[in-house]
Amino acid sequence: MTSIAETRPRLLTLRSFLILGVACLSLFSNSAKSSDPETQALPWHQVIEASGQIDFANDIVPILTKTGCNAGVCHAKAGGGQNGFELSLLGFEPDYDYQQIVMHGRGRRLFPAVPEQSLLVRKAVGTEPHRGGVRMNVNSAEYRLLIEWIKRGSPEKPTSSDPKVVRAHSTISSVRVFPESRLMQPGETQQLSVVATYSDGSTRDVTGLALFESNNNALATVNDQGLVTVADLPGTAAIMVRYSGFVSVFRPAVPLGAPLATIPSSTNLVDQHVFANLQRLGIPPSGSCDDETFQRRVTIDLTGRLPSDTDRELYAKWPSDQRRTLLVDHLLQQSDYAEYFANKWTSLLKNRRDDTNDLAANFSFHAWVRDSLQAGTPYDQMVKELLGATGTIASNPAVAWYKRVKDPKEQLEDISQLFLGVRLQCAQCHHHPFERWSQDDYYSLAAFFSRVGRKPTGVQNEDMIFHQRGVAETRNVRSGQMLRPRALGTDLGEIQPSDDPRLKLADWMRSPDNPFFAKSLVNRYWKHFFHVGLIEPEDDIRDTNPPSNPELLEALEKNFIASGFDLRALAKTLVTSQTYQLSSQPNSQNKIDSQNFSRFYPRRLTAEVLLDSIDQLTGSQTNFANLPAGTRAIALPDNSYNRAVPFLKVFGRPENSSVCECERVQSANLAQSLHLLNAADLKGKLATAGGLADQLAKSTDPLPVRIGRVYQSAFCRAPTEAELQVITDATTAAAPTKQDFEDILWAIINSKEFLFNH
């Protein structure tokens, strides 16, 4: 045991370098304090000074993180780090890091006799060639602390009872940022303060050792010392703060500050929260769209098609103050609604055909999803039927998912991302860098699928899925430990060998207390109808990726649970809101708004909807193998038709190989433009015998009437006087020919108004 007298010189040395070397750190840390008593914690260097102790995990590892040494692109790189020196990602495993620095490399990384000559130090300050460049300044507090640690013989733990930042799933607040949120004016700055709470109840200001990252640099930027600067774009950003394996978030909100003369009346909970947020930020909403625009918009969003002549006639007959609600109810009961959303879900559930033997399984699985949606099966029940599916495809089509997704690790990753909005792929190899999830969480979730049994049936290439009795467990490949089922930090109790663990998982997922299940679905549906999720990406729900309107997301989540997980009711709530019915035309103040829903955000039609819309407008038909004539593109059961119909592939229809919505390409490209300009299949549709161009050429109606028919079919509106004049001037004066009408339709199809839902 070292005596007090023996440690006094070291304490004096440590005190001296801290007082001299980190004066600037003390200044900025003090300036970051708020009136909150928790932010009165001493800065990290003063805590070390007072104790005279240096702890590897508490004091050295954060320096490695701050300087980027244990980042995924440096020495925490998968596959051995860099040049034989490997660290754990972001310091999540300090014991491993200690061994790598002190024990490995034949001890050549540290030189206690002359700490300044240690290879670890020389590389960091740039006196030794280093591919990572200079990571530390010789005048910095971090450098001086590192030198002092090496001088003391690089201790790992001063005492066995040394306090730690508590590492538990429920203690994300063990590291907190102050302030947590603030309304900031354009161009304003805010210095953050980061406080860590330790297992003995003590606190420490760790601002100088924390990492800061903005989720939207267009709205707010942050420097290495936690100084946030906001731009002039209105909205809310998130500044992620990371220290010692924990994360916290500061949410700056930037108001536009424009006067709001009028706010549309609220229809439901959506409007209450959206309009309250617009008032807080001073962003005037656009006016409401007209009836024609609403009919086209909501028909596309609910059924994936344009309104038909019959639809428009029926809509016009309904009372003006009720027609929008009546239209929504009418569309939600149509089979097109189930077809359209089955297209969405079967794509995300990887209903993919790799060979002809998949044909029956793919058709059966698609029919199961479609029929469940048509019957109004509650969402939570559908998920439970999918997860707990047993038997053969003929008796239970839901088991087709297990035919496509066979590996328990892939099953857990797909389920967590699709139904919980949690991306766990990173946690297979290391602690999730932006979340609380560890490798144990990953493999504990995989254990729910460890007892899925398979045995061949009499049908070629088909297995019977069953629950295989036994203890459910999975091995953590890094630690070697066998782990029992555990649902993202939630212990579901003992699972008997006779119990199917998948059903336990499904019951936990559909519980009203589950913090992910309902939230993930309502955010996904919000993005479907409003183009931008309340959380982006829509399947990446985590503490460090907060929603743009937390109150709205929480209200929708509770409402969805209260409805009994009714998907139709959720869709109706969204599309009957005044927010959904806002015009897509921006006003002079809300042009730059991209996340607060002060107007409707236009979006391109998906590949299937666009193909169906072209067929519907031109009076043509696309034929698909093994499907009845007249089958629409949105009703296709799997990805195989992408190869047979080039249009679908060019316009981004997914191959159903991922649970991520991002697999669907919605952006424009040159191939799409060229296809619409001169592709043979489009020319054939325009020239279809008996099609719209043929009918219009043979019609004896006045030209304005015939052009009006085109506009009603494409846009649900009449042409303006200017549009009518341009088209009249461009046609053959005496008697417009079929070619003239083909040209008119071609121009309509290539217009942005047709290609977008607005």
Question: Main attributes?
Answer:
758 residues, alpha+beta, Immunoglobulin-like, five-stranded mixed sheet, 31 helices, disordered N terminus
Q: Summed up, what is this model?
A:
This protein is 41% helix and 8% strand.
Structural overview:
It is globular and about 100 Å long. Among the domains are: 4-151, no CATH class; 172-254, Immunoglobulin-like; 378-509, no CATH class; 687-757. It is an alpha+beta fold. 41% of the residues lie in helices and 8% in strands. The model is unreliable at 1-35 and 167-172 (pLDDT under 50). Helix 4 packs across helix 7 (141-151), helix 9 (291-303) runs parallel beside helix 11 and helix 19 (517-530) crosses helix 20. It contains 31 helices and 17 strands.
Shape: globular
Number of strands: 17
Main pleated sheet:
5 strands, mixed
Structural class given helices, strands, pairing?
alpha+beta
Q: Calculate Rg over CA atoms.
A: 31 Å
Number of helices: 31
Mean pLDDT: 84
Distance between the termini: 75 Å
Q: Estimate percent helicity.
A: 40-55%
Q: Catalogue the unreliable spans.
A: 1-35, 167-172
- Assess the beta-strand content as a share of residues: 5-15%
Kindly report the oligomeric state of this protein: single chain
Topology:
Blueprint: H1 4-21, H2 23-31, H3 44-51, H4 56-66, H5 94-103, H6 119-125, H7 141-151, E1 175-178, E2 181-183, E3 189-191, E4 193-197, E5 203-205, E6 211-214, E7 220-222, E8 227-230, E9 235-236, E10 239-243, E11 246-254, H8 269-281, H9 291-303, H10 309-317, H11 323-332, H12 335-348, H13 359-375, H14 379-387, H15 400-404, H16 408-419, H17 439-446, E12 452-456, E13 463-467, E14 474-475, E15 482-483, H18 501-509, H19 517-530, H20 550-562, H21 567-575, E16 603-604, H22 607-618, H23 641-644, H24 646-650, H25 670-678, H26 680-686, H27 692-698, H28 703-715, H29 721-730, H30 738-749, H31 752-755, E17 756-757
